[in-house]
Amino acid sequence: TVISGTAKDGFTITNTITGKVSIPVTKKWVGPEGTSATIRLFAGNSEVGSVTLNKANNWKHTFAGLEKYKDGNEIVYTIKEDAIANYNTKITGDMASGFTVTNTNIEKTNVNVTKKWVGKAKDSVKVKLIADGTEKESADLTAADSWKHEFKNLPKYDSADGHEIVYTVKEVKI
């Protein structure tokens, strides 16, 4: 509260709303952990802070002692993460409950298969691509393609829990 003026001219009483907030940020990985992640804190459109999260700080930080109001209006804080190669970023939460930044690995892999014959070759053979025990794709191999096929652009890590997917190939019985 600030009181200004004189008895002759009158007094003006100005009340300024004050308050502080703290905003926790937690980092989660789906797939292998990266080495670090830079999180930037914004008040409206202005960057007001940043932090590097890593294993040493348990992928957590709290932006503390932040002003709750500016010019009588509540400040809306948001966060952004600097892009990390081979990861998609998803930010959930809010300034009241805290933010969670989840990075999901999006690396791709290819699986090659080659058919070798002992004895007389058939006209074609069908192979199935199996991912963690579930059939995903199939391909026909023939002499025209040198009995080879490449299953391309396959996810390397499971998007639900981040484990590395085990790919196998199974031949359909001839």
Task: List the topology elements.
Blueprint (H helix, E strand, L loop, with lengths): L1 E5 L3 E5 L5 E11 L6 E7 L2 E8 L6 E8 L1 E2 L2 E2 L2 E5 L5 E8 L3 E8 L2 E7 L9 E8 L2 E9 L5 E8 L11 E5 L3
Parallel strand pairs: 3-11
Antiparallel strand pairs: 1-2, 3-6, 4-5, 4-9, 7-8, 10-11, 12-15, 13-14, 13-16
Written overview of the protein:
- There is one protein chain.
- With 174 residues, the chain is an all-beta fold.
- Helices cover 0% and strands 61% of the residues.
- The protein contains no helices and 16 strands.
- The chain has a four-stranded mixed β-sheet, with no helix packed on it.
- It starts with a strand and ends with a strand.
- The mean pLDDT is 92.
Would you report the number of β strands?
16
List the quaternary state of the chains. Answer: single chain
Q: List the total number of helices.
A: 0
Report the mean per-residue pLDDT as an integer.
92
Q: What overall geometry do the principal axes of the alpha carbons give?
A: rod-shaped
Residues in β-strands, percent: over 45%
Q: State the share of residues found in helices, binned by percent.
A: under 10%
**Largest sheet features:** 4 strands, mixed
C-alpha Rg, in Å? 29 Å
Keywords:
single chain, 174 residues, four-stranded mixed β-sheet, 61% strand
Summary, kept brief:
With 174 residues, the protein is mostly beta strands. The protein is 0% helix and 61% strand.
